[in-house]
Structure formats: structure tokens, C-alpha cells
Design goal:
This protein is α+β, with helices and mostly antiparallel strands. The chain has 12 helices and 18 strands.
């Protein structure tokens, strides 16, 4: 969640097609990174119908858009304050469409000179709010948002994730009005880290590529293509500098390393492919492992065994500035209310728990709608954040305790889903909505109680770790 001038606050994204996953789900997920103490809330917006078209106006940059009279129900994770914009970031709507926005990226100076960013154009903070309630498929989401970018311009360079039960798409905006989108092949995945990532565009393959109208003409007229042949969007519009090599590409390298361990690649490689096919079928746990990772098993782990230089060389995927991490799972052969699972980890993913919330819930727990800039004891964000801070102080000793809790609770939550899925299939209407809400709230309570119990344990242990302790020599 950044703008073009703030190059060192960013996110990491993951996408996987339905044939790449073990159960046929589509998966999109992302870490939302901004500040170390900046809470997120989790809400459900109900289905709304108005007698007159509505108008959205951004409190961030004044972007204004007329909206439809009908807005679908959807989940979202807005900021604790709307002073700087909503930043709803991620959610699943009542039609079974998931959206995550955005993966911040950067356009090179040549392209920006030809088509500058639009100061009051659409930006990250508005994208989910003005798009997700108004689309019924992932492909429709691309067209809908693309038309907005084309007409009103964008204030940032961004990547946007869309999915439904059959398709997964990654969309990128560049310069002021340019955009492309590529369907992730059903049997493939992608890891994205703050770079324009889409490579060769096949303009004749409309099933798998979509673009702004006139894109080729724009590039040709402004002499932006560095190659005589082909149309590599990343190389035409993207950047390629030292910050990419140490800040961005190592995260893509590590995500691909986890799913394709037999492929030899280097962390600073500028030729890592956008699309990969994993060596095994992907589970939600694999997506979690990528999003909560910090180069474990390599010298580059900040809490590992590498040298000080190695430990601080690359920016990890999971870090202290993560506000929340989400995985939006759309499972096959189920109605949208049950098929969609909004996995949400408040705070730092490596120190949190991914809690499964059904897309069909009518509300979220009270603690998930609380929390401001200052620590608050009954805020879900701050409860998870507090545990992480205590672990930070003595990571080698407390890290294993946290991992034990994460493993135990993850198993329990997966078991709960199996049980609640069976019951949910026997219900419909309000009964189904109430049941999905109660089961999701129960899962949230299990996670919070586990973290609070661990926090009490850690505080108790820390009482004997004071520098004011004194151990008497028994020979005196």
C-alpha cells in the first residue's frame, strides 16, 4: 500500500489455478505491508440496493466515481481510520468472486513521460470498494476496473488479483492509463513482489490476455519497446535496478524455491519467470508457507544462522510492517457462500494464525472491528501483534513455543472446516448464513484464545529475564 514516491513499503502476492491445487480450489493471496503499528479491521458489507446511483469520493486523493444502484455483499479489511482512504484491500463477494488489491509496482521514466500518473485517478485505496461489489466473474472484474483506469487514469502502478471458481487473473496497471491482464494457467502458479511481472503478451489469445485498447499503438508511437520482436510488458513498462535485485526478486525466488526446489535459480536474477508449474499439488498450507516466510533454511533469514550481512541483505516476505495477510480460497462444486474461504492472519503472518471465515457470513467478531493506532487489549489485530512482539524479544527461545501453537491450531481449524462444511450443505437461506457466521466466529475465538494463552505464558517466562536479576555465588 504505497504510492510511486515511496518505494520501500510494499506487498507480496501468490496466485494458483484450480488444476495446480490439490482440491481444485483457486487461490489468491497477499501480504498487506505498510507500517509496524497500523491496525486493520475485518468487516462484511451487506447487499445494498439504492433508488438512485451512488457516488464514491476518495478521502485520499479526491478520485470520484458514480456507482451502480445495486452493490453486492462482500468481505473486506479496511484501515482502522478512513482519514487517508479506505484501503479495503481484499474480499469475496456474494457471487463467488475474490479480489485482492494491490501489489504495488513501478513504471519506468520513459513510459511515465509518455503517459504520466493521474494525481486524482483511481488508486489502491479505492479499488476493492468500487469494483468488488459490482462484478460477477473474475474476467468481468478485469474489464470493469480496466475501463475505470482507461477513462479516469490511475495515480499509481499496481497489480490486482482476481479469481472465481474457474479462473485466476493477474492485472497490472502502468503509467497513467495503460493496463494488461493475464490468466494464470489452470495448472500453474505465480509469486509477485513489487515489480511489473507479466511478460510476453499474446494479443491474439483473448482467452488468456486482456489489455487496454490501443496498447500496441501507444508503445510504438512512443518508442518504448526495447526489443525488435515480441511484446514483453515487464520490460517495456517496468524497472530494472539495484532495488529490484535486493528488495523484490529475492522474494519471488524464495516462493518459487519452495514449490520448485529442484530448479536452480539465484535470488537476484532478473529473469525469473512470472508463471511456474509446481512440483507438487498446492495446498492452502503451501500458500501460507510462502506468505509467512522469511528465507528460512537459507543464510538470508533475519533470525537464522547467516552472517549479519547475509541476514540483512534481502527484504523478507513476512516482516514487521505486515498489517494483515490473506488467502482467498474458492473451492469447487459448492455454492458461493460455502465455497469461499477468506483466510485472514492479522498482523505479521509469521507470528499469526490464518483463520478461515466463510464468504457467506453476515458479520465478523467484534474484536475484528476494533483497534486504532495505539495498543488496544480487545482488538484482534493487537492481540496477535502483542504475541509477536513478545516473541521478538527472545526469538530463539520463544519461537518454538509459537510454532507449536500455530501447528496445533491450524490442525484444529482444518478439522473444524471439514465438520462445518458437512452441516452447511444441509442448510440454506438465513439458517445457512447464521451457521456460517457462528462457525467462523468460533474459529476466530479459538485463534484469539490460543494467542492470549501463549501471551500469558511468555510474560510469565519473561519475569525472570530482567537485567536486574542477580544470582548469588553460593560460596559466599
Amino acid at each position: 500500500m504505497i504510492n510511486q514516491t515511496n518505494k520501500y513499503s510494499a506487498c507480496t502476492s501468490f496466485l494458483a489455478g484450480r488444476l495446480a491445487t490439490a482440491d481444485g480450489s483457486t487461490l489468491i493471496g497477499r501480504n498487506e505491508d505498510s507500517r509496524a503499528a497500523w491496525p486493520k479491521h475485518f468487516v462484511v458489507h451487506p447487499h445494498r440496493e439504492f433508488s438512485e446511483p451512488q457516488t464514491f469520493k476518495s478521502t485520499d486523493n479526491g478520485f470520484t466515481l458514480n456507482l451502480s444502484k445495486v452493490a453486492a455483499k462482500y468481505t473486506a479489511t479496511p484501515e482502522w481510520t478512513d482519514k487517508f482512504g479506505l484501503f479495503e484491500e481484499d474480499g469475496i463477494n456474494e457471487y463467488g468472486v475474490a479480489m485482492s488489491a494491490t501489489e504495488s509496482a513501478y513504471t519506468n521514466n520513459q513510459a511515465l513521460g509518455a503517459d504520466p500518473l493521474v494525481e486524482n485517478g483511481i488508486g489502491e485505496e479505492a479499488m476493492v470498494t468500487v469494483t468488488l461489489p459490482y462484478i460477477k466473474t473474475a474476467r468481468e472484474g478485469i474489464t470493469y476496473l480496466g475501463n475505470i483506469v482507461e477513462r479516469y487514469g490511475t495515480s499509481e502502478t499496481n497489480g490486482i488479483l482476481f479469481s472465481d471458481q474457474t479462473e485466476v487473473w493477474y492485472m497490472e496497471t502502468a503509467a497513467g492509463h495503460q493496463w494488461v491482464a493475464q490468466r494464470i494457467p489452470d495448472d500453474a502458479y505465480a509469486v509477485v513482489a513489487n515489480q511489473l511481472s507479466i511478460q510476453e503478451i499474446d494479443f491474439d489469445d483473448q482467452d488468456n490476455f486482456m489489455t487496454v485498447s490501443g496498447l500496441k499503438d501507444f508503445v510504438n508511437q512512443n518508442h518504448l519497446n526495447p526489443h525488435r520482436n515480441g511484446f514483453n510488458f515487464r520490460e517495456i513498462f517496468g524497472t530494472n535496478d539495484l532495488s529490484d535485485e535486493i528488495y523484490n526478486t529475492p522474494r519471488v525466488w524464495y516462493g518459487q524455491k519452495l514449490l520448485n526446489p529442484s530448479i536452480d535459480q539465484q535470488p537476484q536474477s532478473q529473469s525469473l519467470p512470472f508463471i511456474r508449474r509446481a512440483e507438487k499439488l498446492i495446498q492452502v498450507d503451501d500458500a501460507e508457507q510462502i506468505l509467512n516466510s522469511h528465507f528460512q533454511g537459507t543464510p538470508f533469514d533475519p533470525i537464522g544462522v547467516g552472517s549479519k550481512h547475509e541476514q540483512t541483505l534481502y527484504r523478507p516476505i513476512s516482516l514487521a510492517k505486515t498489517q494483515e495477510s490473506h488467502i482467498l480460497q474458492l473451492r469447487p462444486n459448492l455454492p458461493p457462500e460455502i465455497a469461499g474461504i477468506h483466510w485472514l492472519a492479522m498482523g505479521v503472518a509469521a507470528q499469526s494464525l490464518y483463520i478461515p471465515f466463510y464468504a457467506g457470513i453476515k458479520d465478523t467478531p467484534v474484536s475484528y472491528k476494533k483497534g486504532s493506532e495505539t495498543y488496544q487489549v480487545d482488538s484482534a489485530y493487537w492481540i496477535y501483534k502483542q504475541t509477536g512482539i513478545l516473541v521478538d524479544a527472545h526469538y530463539l527461545e520463544f519461537g518454538p513455543l509459537l510454532e507449536d501453537v500455530q501447528d496445533k491450531i491450524n490442525q484444529q481449524l482444518i478439522q473444524n472446516l471439514h465438520i462445518s462444511d458437512k452441516m452447511a450443505l444441509t442448510l440454506d437461506g438465513k439458517a445457512l448464513e447464521n451457521y456460517l457466521t457462528s462457525q467462523s466466529n468460533q474459529n476466530a475465538a479459538i485463534g484469539l484464545q490460543a494467542m492470549q494463552k501463549l501471551t500469558a505464558q511468555l510474560i510469565t517466562k519473561m519475569t525472570d529475564m530482567s537485567p536486574l536479576n542477580y544470582k548469588q555465588d553460593m560460596n559466599l
